[in-house]
Amino acid sequence: MRPPVLNRRLVLETQLQDADGAGGHLAVWHGLGTLWAEVLAGLGREREGPGVPMGRVAYRITVPAAPPGSLARPRPDQRFREGDRIFAILAVAERDARGAYLTCFCEEEEPA
Hints:
The protein is mainly β and 112 residues long. It is 0% helix and 63% strand.
């Protein structure tokens, strides 16, 4: 297996709850840090959007491994950001037997 080419800087973000001032909460994304990554596009597929078909593309994003529990270890409830592009993390797995890299299975989201 070839080593990944970590040539993209992505910000790992996690969702926090922030008071909205009216007794409720707002979801706010908070950056945890920057990771160098390899971003590979996978297969695309079509899904129904609001009245029109929309394309979805799966991505495999490889980052250096971090120990379980570390803030630098991506989780499925987090996302990566590259400028205006957002990649929702769906699953995370070790890429190699040594555990030197993690592969994050992601989908690109439309910016809000």
